[in-house]
Amino acid sequence: MDTRLLRTFTTLARTGGFTSAAAELHLAQSTVTVHIRTLERELGTRLFDRLPTGTLLTESGRRLLDGAEEVLDAVARLRAGGREGDGVVRGRVRVGTPESLCATRLPGVIAALRTRHPEVDVDLHAAGTAECVAGLRAGRLDLALLLEDEADFPEITAEPVTREPLALVCAPHHPLAARTRPATWARLATETFFLLEQGCSYSDALERRLLALPGTGPRLTRFGSVDAARSCAAAGLGLTLLPLTTVAEYLEQGRLTRVPGPGFDDVPVRLARHRRRWTAPATEAFARELVRQSGA
């Protein structure tokens, strides 16, 4: 069986549409259609139901999917073995990660990896937990970093590699900065907060804690950017809760100060991958370097 047909099949199963599959595979949409029809003819069964909103796997298609992924993984292992007979680790690693780690922890990991394995390239994709998990399941990502206390997702393994301290901060001229006594939750619930977008575990947890208090709730603005939340806090517009590594320079420069108040537990950084999918040598090299740099 032509593995190109299996790759087209698994891509269509993942994307749910002929147009999206064609774009990802860099093929004409008509070619994707021909591949699927050829595969269905060879197997003597319909693999997809064609719907106005896209495609949906049939029962036969669902049964084929696991086997097709195993075949493609086996082919990838054979190709990798042939390329790496010289002992050189090479390849491209696609990593999903929260934006805060893109700018703080990962540059050092990539620099060290480049020294050890110059022929390994890393593509970083800033994304929240849900998008990272979806990317791992769909095969768009090889690894992902999750900032989560718990990470129980079907088909995904997630091992803790380090912990990320959090800091509640405001501008030095903010009223809370001058307090000698820690601010209570009731006091914090009257403030303006700039938090990261929905899906950020520690931002979501803080929002739930604040909104659970009786009385007038806080003003909450969610951003998809660490820099936006940090800059609003530094301008004196409110408070933000961010990983300490992302605000350390602002604290040293006196542009932000830590808010005396409730403590926040460190958030585990978890290295996640698909449970059943083969891990290429380049991906393993990145994972080892991450653990090494994290001191785990």
Explain how this protein is built.
The protein is α/β, with parallel strands linked by helices. 46% of the residues lie in helices and 22% in strands. It is built from twelve helices and twelve strands. It has helices at residues 3-15, 18-25, 29-43, 59-83, 99-103, 106-116, 129-138, 185-188, 201-211, 226-234, 244-253, 281-294, and strands at residues 48-51, 54-57, 91-97, 120-126, 143-147, 156-164, 166-170, 192-196, 219-223, 240-243, 257-258, 267-274. The chain has a five-stranded mixed sheet, with helices on both faces. It has a three-stranded antiparallel sheet with strand order 10-7-11, sandwiched between helices. A two-stranded antiparallel sheet has the order 1-2. A hairpin with a 2-residue loop joins strand 1 and strand 2 (54-57). Helix 1 packs across helix 2 and helix 6 (106-116) crosses helix 12. The longest helix is centred in the first third of the chain and has 25 residues, at 59-83. It is elongated, with a radius of gyration of 23 Å. The model has no long low-confidence stretch (mean pLDDT 89).
